[in-house]
Amino acid sequence: MLNRPQNRTCVECGRPYGHTDFAYHAGKIENGPSYWSDRGLLCSAACSTAHYEKREKAGDAMKEPAPDPFERG
User: Fold this and answer.
1) How many C-beta neighbours within 10 Å does residue 63 have?
2) Among 30, 35, 52, 64, which residue's beta carbon has the most beta carbons within 10 A?
3) Whole-number Cα distances in Å, 54 to 28, 49, 57, 62, 66
4) pTM for this predicted structure
5) The predicted structure's pLDDT at residue 40
6) Does residue 14 fall inside a structural domain?
7) How far apart are CA 51 and CA 27, in angstroms?
8) Which parts of the chain fold into alpha helices (H)?
9) Domain limits at 24?
């Protein structure tokens, strides 16, 4: 079965990857995103915190770090 193309938008606010306000590792888009979870990319520290708090409140907090979404396994 073919894998779906990865959605490259913030899972919290919908900001697209490549937007000037998206946070990148060391500030460079070629280094990849600064934040992500097992559910997708997160554009900022604010969205990362909101995502964590929402999942914790729902009883669905991550148990281990999510793999880098841009590394192929």
Assistant:
1) 6
2) 35
3) 28, 8, 5, 11, 17
4) 0.84
5) 94
6) yes
7) 21
8) 45-57
9) 8-60
Q: What six digits make up the tokens of 35?
A: 């934040």
* N- to C-terminal Cα separation, the chain: 16
**Of 30, 28, 37, nearest in space to 55 by CA:** 37
pLDDT tens digit string along 18-65?
999 999 999 999 999 999 999 999 999 999 999 999 999 999 999 999
Residue 71 lies in a domain: no
CA angle 11, 4, 41 (to 5 degrees): 20
Number of neighbouring beta carbons within 10 Å of residue 70: 13
The residues pairing with 41 across neighbouring beta strands, listed in sequence order, are 10, 36
The sign of the dihedral angle between the CA atoms of 25, 27, 32, 34 is: positive
